[in-house]
Amino acid sequence: MINENLDIMIKNCNLFNNMSKEQVTSLIDCSRAIFRKYKKGSIIFSQGDEPEFIHILLDGRVIVSNNTINGNEHIINIFNNIGDMFGEVFLFSFNRLYENSAYAEQDCDILCIPKHFLYSPCHNSCKQHNQVIANMLSILADKAYFLNQRVQILSCNSLRGKLIKLIFQYSNGDTSKIPFGREQLAAFLGSTRPSVSRELMKMQADGLIEIKKNTVKILDLKIFDEIK
User: Fold this and answer.
1) Tally of helices (H runs) and strands (E runs) in the chain
2) 217, 209, 216, 167: which is closest to 188 by C-alpha?
3) Are residues 110 and 196 in the same domain?
4) pLDDT tens digits for 178-200?
5) Three-state secondary-structure class, residue 172
6) Mind listing the pLDDT tens digit for each residue in 64-107?
7) pLDDT (0 to 100) of residue 137
8) Any idea what the CATH number is for the domain that residue 14 is in?
9) How many other C-beta atoms are found inside a 10 Å radius of the C-beta of residue 133?
10) 162 is in which domain, residue-wise?
11) For residues 46 and 139, what is the distance between their CA atoms, to the nearest angstrom?
C-alpha cells in the first residue's frame, strides 16, 4: 500500500510542491525518513510529547484532538486524504511539546520525516532541500489561516451561527461537504451530538439547507451572506 500511494502523496502533499518524484524520493532517503504503520486506536503522539517528526498520511484516517481536564475530547482536525500532513506546527514552536494528541481512527501508514531535516539546508545546498524548506513556510502560513478560521467559527454566539460558518467554510458553490460525522462535528464545535443533530434538522425545516449524509446543499444564501 505504501508504494501504491507514494505517487499520490507526492502529488497531494504541499510539502513537495514544485518537486519531481525523483527529487522527493531522494529527499526521503537523505532525511532518513521512516515509514510507520499504526493499528486502529494506536496513539501517534500524545499531549506533552516532544515533537520528533513531520507526519504525512499515506493511508488511513487520523484524528488530532485535545483532552480537557474533565476528560472531554475536543477534535482539532481530521486527516483522511493521502498526503495530509499533521503535527508540523509544534516542530517550530518555542514550547516544543505537543499540546494535542493524534491517534489512528483506522489502520494507518504514515511517512515520518525527522524535524532536524527542515531546520536548515544540507551542506550540499541541494535544490530539493531548499524547496522543501520554502514549502514548509507556505504550509505554516496556511495553517495559521485555518486556525484563524476555526476561531471565527467558535466565536459565534449560537450553535446555528457556528454551523453556518462551518458549512460556508467547506462550501463549493451551493454545496458543502462536511468532513465529520455527527459525533466528531459536535466535538469540533464544543457541543453535543443531540444538540447538533437537532439544530441541523431545524435549519433544514426552516428551508436553509438540505442534508444528505455529510453533504449539505445550501438553499437560502441570504443567511450565509449575513454571517460571513
Assistant:
1) 7, 12
2) 167
3) no
4) 887 888 888 888 888 999 999 99
5) strand
6) 998 776 777 788 888 999 999 998 888 877 777 898 999 999 99
7) 86
8) 2.60.120.10
9) 15
10) 157-227
11) 22
